[in-house]
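Thanks for the sequence, V.! I ran Ion-translocating oxidoreductase complex subunit G right away. Repeating your input here for the record:
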Amino acid sequence: MVSRLALIALVAGLFLGGTYYITKEPIAEQERMQAQQARQEVLPAAEDFEKLDMQNDAGIEEIYAGKANGGIVGYTVKLTSKGYGGDIVMTVGVNEEGVTGVKINSHSETPGLGAKADAPIFMNQYVGKAPEAFNVAKGAASGDDDILAISGATITSRAVTDGVNTVLELYRSELEGGQ
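Predicted structure:
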C-alpha cells in the first residue's frame, strides 16, 4: 500500500515538474510582452525603451527611458501601491510636460468599486498634468491637481494617486533633464 502511494506521488510530481518546465518560458515571454505593451501605452511617443539601473525602495520595480529619434522622450515607471484589496501594480509614463499615461497592470480591488480604477474616465484625470502632487477629492475636483475619487473606493483612488505622486517625485528628483 505504501509503495503504491509513493509511486503515485512520484508520477504526479514528475508530471507537475514537467508541466512547470514546459510552461515556464512561454509564461515569462507573455509577461515581457505585457510589460512592453504597458510601457508603450503610457508613453506612446517612445519608439523603444532602455531599462535604467536605479536603486529605489518606494515600491518601484522598474524604470525605463523611452527613446525616439536618438533622444529621451520620457520615462516609464512600474511600481506597486497598497490598495484596499491588496497590491496595485501600475505603470506610469512621465516627461517634462507631466504624466503621459497611467495603466494598472494588476490589482485585487473590490469588483464594481475599486476595480473601476482602471477605467479611462479615472485614469485620464492624470494625463497631461504636472502638479507638485495630486490630491484626491470627493464630490468635485476644484483644481488641476485634484483627482475625483471613485465613489465608494477612496482608498483605491488614494493608492493610485500616491503611486502617480511617487513617480512625479522620482522624475523631479532623479530623472528630469535626462540621465
